[in-house]
Amino acid sequence: MASGGAASTAGDGASGKPLLRALGFCGADDSTDVGTLVALSREYPHVEWGVLFRPDKEGTPRYASPAWVAALAAANDAAGRPCQLAGHLCGERVNEVLRGDASFVRSVAKLGFGRVQVNATAINGVDTTDLRGKAAQLRACMRAVPEVEWIVQRNEETRPLWEALSEDAPDNMSMLFDASCGTGVYNFGDGLPAPHGTIATGYAGGIGPHNVAQTLGGVAAAMGGRHAWIDMESSLRGELEGRDVFSIDRCVLCIRRAAGRFTFAGRRSAAACAPPCCGADGGAGGRRLLPLLASASAGAVVGALLAPAPK
């Protein structure tokens, strides 16, 4: 996916802030109230909810069950689809597309998932033999489902795959710098790598509430006015009554700490991206964000988001 021409200065040129396509929160699962996700998306359209798909782990922490995914899709549909959804393919779901089978991606696209991420690594349960040889089948899947953006993890393990795909990249392909592979390790101590010259770029790995502000500054410096997104997973896990849960509290903390540090540029490629719709404040809107429990109801979230700022 083409990312458009680079600007001469970092960020959006006027403010020096990065142009952000999405603030991605991955790992929403059965511990998460779907109404809460819808409520947050209504207020913060730059948020993207990532759902991990791996058949052998469905219904366990990080991996949503089919019933929960159906409930999320129904709630999103009923609200007019305010949620930006990304399916993160793992295990057999990746093996399928590497064999040229795009049927599962077609099915989640009908549920409102606009992007899918192909996590073609061994730690994600994928057969990584001959990734270069499987690139043609994956490319065919991308072209067979053009309405979906296909994200390919870019790291040393996946190099044979993304290098081969880059030789003839479909317009709906993008790349995610992610050496962490979902393990929560931050690998950008020396600065974020420069984006690909013609393919849309995102960054992940060890990002969370503790460093999201720092990371956004790095995105501005690396992207030079081009659009990007960031994504996080491990830092969003919490514990509730002894259970590993997706923490809405930590998502809200990220939203608060990112507010005012980016300009929302829309979720498409830079060439096709809509004008900023949240203003240069990152969608904060002057509202006060309160700490929320991982089990908070949608009503509690809405109440906190809409509470007037203290004078």
The gross shape turns out to be globular
Q: Which superfamily, in CATH terms, is the homologous superfamily?
A: Aldolase class I
Distance between the termini: 45 Å
How many helices in DSSP terms? Answer: 9
Looking at CATH, which topology would you report? TIM Barrel
How many domains make up the coordinates? 1
Helix content: 25-40%
Query: Rg, please?
Result: 18 Å
Largest sheet entry: 8 strands, parallel, barrel
Look at the structure and give the CATH class: Alpha Beta
User: In terms of structural class, how would the helical and strand content be classed?
Assistant: alpha/beta
User: How many DSSP E strands?
Assistant: 11
- How much strand content do the residues show? 15-25%
> Would you list the SSEs in sequence order as H and E?
EHEHEHHEHEHEEHEEEHEH
Low-confidence stretches: 1-10, 269-281, 283-311
Strand adjacency order, main sheet: 1-2-3-4-5-6-7-8
Give the mean pLDDT. Answer: 84
Secondary-structure arrangement, i.e. CATH architecture: Alpha-Beta Barrel
Describe the structure.
The protein has 311 residues and is an alpha/beta fold. The protein has a single domain (19-306), classed as Alpha-Beta Barrel (TIM Barrel). It contains nine helices and eleven strands. The protein has helices spanning 34-43, 66-78, 92-98, 103-110, 131-144, 159-166, 212-223, 248-258, 298-306; strands at 19-26, 47-53, 84-89, 113-118, 149-154, 173-177, 200-204, 227-232, 237-240, 243-246, 263-264. α6 (159-166) links the parallel β5 (149-154) and β6.
